[in-house]
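Reopening this ticket.

The earlier resolution said the output was attached, but the attachment link was broken on my side. Pasting everything inline this time so it's all in one place.
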Amino acid sequence: MLVICVVGMPASGKGIVVKEAKKMGFPVIVMGDIVREETVKRGLPLTPQNLNMVAKDLRDKEGEDVIAKRCVKKIGKIRSNIVIVDGVRSLKELERYKRDLGETVIIAVHASPQVRFKRILKRKRPGDPKSWNEFVERDLVELSFGLGNVIALADYMIVNEGTIEELREMAKKVLKEILSKHC
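Inline output:
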């Protein structure tokens, strides 16, 4: 199986890249959904603080790669040679995918903090930060999980400072390149 991991800081544009992959027919697993599901299961509102607390708690109790382990179970039910994983945050998670599923390729999506903060304010997703301080706090939590290390090891880097259409075109190009090299 080929696992294509789409990584990046919150609001970098990962979701748009993932949507393009879906349009190409690839199944998608969103790691953040695991944390959101667990937060709701615990009866907590989807706030940045609760999501961060639950993510940390899961990792403390079940290991750094707990979210990847849960995703591997979901991926095991998918009938495809290729799967897109949205939101890898640590090298341990990446190792879990490699060990349990096979070849992995990393696409990192990057945008500046200022651009990402503006996007977060516009999208109004449950659990998103409402202030610059919350935004910075969330970034620091993401980085504490090891996200920067995963981004640094990316096989492909998409810089997303332009329009959504430009990002879509870059995503299609990168995904087609990956397919031509790995399939």
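Reporter confirms the inline version is readable. Residues 2-176 form a domain with the Rossmann fold fold (CATH 3.40.50.300). The chain has a mean pLDDT of 94.
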